[in-house]
């Protein structure tokens, strides 16, 4: 019916957030599913900001949404579309629908509209304006809206990729407003026009939009446009099965980033929320792209599982590049206003490989690295001081001599040296290990002794040991 750009060939998905707040984890998962399906099919992933609600849309919210998408690595394959900028196109479509008899002007008063809505809520017919088939009033310039002239009989089928076929009685679908009295396009109209013009072939979104799909289907049909495939995915609930809220913890993508989760871990976990590939828990982006199909999304709501998120994120931490993790750890510590040595970056680069296996988040990793960031001379814990008996000090002095002569300062070489020293002394590690650990770490959490020393390096390790021995001289 209307002149519009020819849609591109192939699969085109879109993520269309409203900039009225932060990027919610549910929205992030919707974006991810759209991104995965586009990648899986060799198609395109687009982003459209639905900013027609001018009172609630803010620049800060727009920035927060893109910050979240950028952190997740979900970038639009084309220039981002801002819905408000397309209002003239939306109004042009409505004018053509009016001319074709698919829409009509409605001069219902506020009181008449309230009464009609109350009747509909009480079980009466869906809202149909008395102006639907009536001639215009004497003064057609009076404030009015433009409504969609929907069918009053029959049914509308939404053959949903996730929910399956869903049928709506047209008699239950009201004549929705297309243009408000001030000429502003409404959500359902703008969405249809934009999706059509952008060539969107698959509308994958939350199942709270399922009812909108019926109304939007009718607008597509009224304009003679090809329908996209709809896929409505269940919402995310908290661990208790209730709708996700503040009491369940983090909700915004930015909060998860601040808590030390990394993008690849978050992508993996979000993909598992309502979709899966057999028993696979931990997988790469490449695997997710190869496996993902929207028709495999489950119908039941997914539940946020912190333990599983921590496990998956920890697995990706282990696989991440050490230099990148060291940088993330440094930034996390700086955000905490932690006191850091001048060479903190170099120290972190040395310690991260030794401790990352036990961490689930970057914040945990920062805790595991704390021992390496201490500045000499370390303040020893009282229990370490008590362990430094004359016998232990003499034994540590002998160990210090062997360490000083060690030709190679590596994890395996140090492990061999410590075992050999214990055997030569005829004692177990318990006779010197706890005191040595306390000297090297100042009581901070740390890995095995050989990894501690490898992380600290020869000079720092021997320096800390010398400080402790000198304090007992």
Give a quick set of tags describing it.
Arc Repressor Mutant, subunit A, 46% helix, Rossmann fold, disordered N terminus
Number of helices: 19
Strand content: 5-15%
CATH structural class of the largest domain: Alpha Beta
Q: Which strand order spans the largest sheet, edge to edge or round the barrel?
A: 1-2-3
Total tally of structural domains: 3
Task: Summarize the amount of helix as a percent range.
Answer: 40-55%
CATH topology term of the largest domain:
Rossmann fold
Oligomer: single chain
The CATH homologous superfamily of the largest domain corresponds to HUPs
Q: Globular, elongated, flat, extended or rod-shaped: what is the shape?
A: elongated
> Roughly how many Å apart are the termini?
95 Å
Largest sheet: 3 strands, parallel
Category from helices, strands and their pairing: mainly alpha
Annotate the secondary structure layout.
Blueprint (H helix, E strand, L loop, with lengths): L11 E4 L9 H17 L2 E6 L9 H14 L8 E2 L4 H13 L3 E4 L3 H12 L23 E4 L6 E6 L3 E6 L7 E3 L7 H11 L4 E5 L3 H14 L5 E5 L2 E2 L15 H6 L4 H10 L12 H7 L10 E2 L2 H14 L2 H14 L8 H12 L6 H8 L12 H6 L2 H15 L6 H15 L7 H9 L7 H8 L1 H14 L2
Parallel strand pairs: 1-2, 2-3, 9-10, 11-12
Antiparallel strand pairs: 4-5, 5-8, 6-7
Helix pairs in contact: 1-9, 3-5, 5-6, 8-10, 11-12, 11-13, 12-18, 15-16, 15-19, 16-18, 18-19
């Amino acid at each position: 019916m209307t002149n519009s750009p020819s849609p591109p060939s192939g699969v085109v998905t879109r993520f269309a957030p409203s900039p009225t707040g932060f990027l919610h984890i549910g929205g992030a998962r919707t974006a991810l599913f759209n991104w995965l399906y586009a990648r899986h099919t060799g198609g395109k992933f687009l982003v459209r900001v639905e900013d027609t609600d001018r009172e609630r849309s803010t620049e800060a919210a727009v920035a927060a949404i893109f910050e979240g998408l950028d952190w997740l690595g979900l970038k639009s394959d084309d220039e981002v579309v801002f819905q408000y900028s397309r209002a003239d196109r939306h109004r042009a479509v409505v004018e053509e629908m009016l001319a074709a008899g698919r829409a009509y002007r409605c001069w219902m008063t506020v009181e008449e509209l309230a009464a009609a809505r109350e009747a509909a809520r009480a079980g009466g017919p869906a809202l149909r304006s008395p102006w639907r088939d009536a001639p215009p009033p004497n003064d057609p310039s009076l404030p009015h809206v433009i409504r969609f002239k929907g069918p009053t009989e029959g049914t509308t089928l939404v053959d949903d990729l996730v929910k399956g076929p869903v049928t709506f009685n047209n008699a239950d679908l009201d004549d929705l407003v297309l243009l408000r009295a001030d000429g502003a396009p409404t959500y359902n109209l703008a969405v249809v026009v934009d999706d059509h013009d952008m060539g969107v072939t698959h509308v994958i979104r939350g199942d709270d939009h399922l009812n909108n799909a019926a109304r939007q289907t009718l607008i597509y049909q009224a304009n003679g446009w090809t329908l996209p495939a709809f896929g409505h995915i269940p919402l995310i609930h908290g661990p208790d099965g209730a709708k996700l809220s503040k009491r369940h913890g983090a909700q915004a993508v930015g909060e998860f980033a601040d808590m030390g989760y990394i993008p690849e871990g978050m992508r993996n976990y979000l993909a598992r929320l309502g979709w899966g590939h057999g028993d696979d828990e931990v997988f790469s982006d490449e695997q997710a792209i190869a496996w993902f199909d929207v028709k495999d999304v489950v119908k039941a709501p997914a539940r946020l599982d912190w333990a599983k998120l921590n496990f998956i994120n920890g697995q990706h931490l282990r696989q991440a590049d050490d230099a990148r993790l060291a940088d993330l750890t440094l930034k996390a510590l700086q955000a905490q206003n932690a006191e850091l040595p001048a060479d903190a970056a170099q120290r972190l680069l040395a310690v991260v490989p030794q401790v990352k296996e036990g961490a689930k988040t970057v914040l945990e990793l920062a805790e595991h690295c704390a021992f390496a960031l201490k500045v000499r001379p370390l303040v020893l814990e009282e229990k370490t001081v008590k362990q430094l008996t004359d016998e232990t000090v003499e034994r540590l002095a002998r160990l210090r001599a062997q360490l000083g002569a060690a030709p190679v300062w590596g994890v395996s070489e140090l492990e061999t040296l410590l075992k050999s020293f214990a055997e030569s002394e005829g004692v177990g590690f318990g006779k010197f290990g706890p005191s040595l650990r306390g000297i090297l770490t100042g009581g901070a959490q740390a890995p095995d002794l050989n990894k501690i020393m490898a992380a600290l390096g020869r000079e720092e390790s021997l320096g800390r040991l010398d400080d402790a021995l000198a304090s007992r001289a």
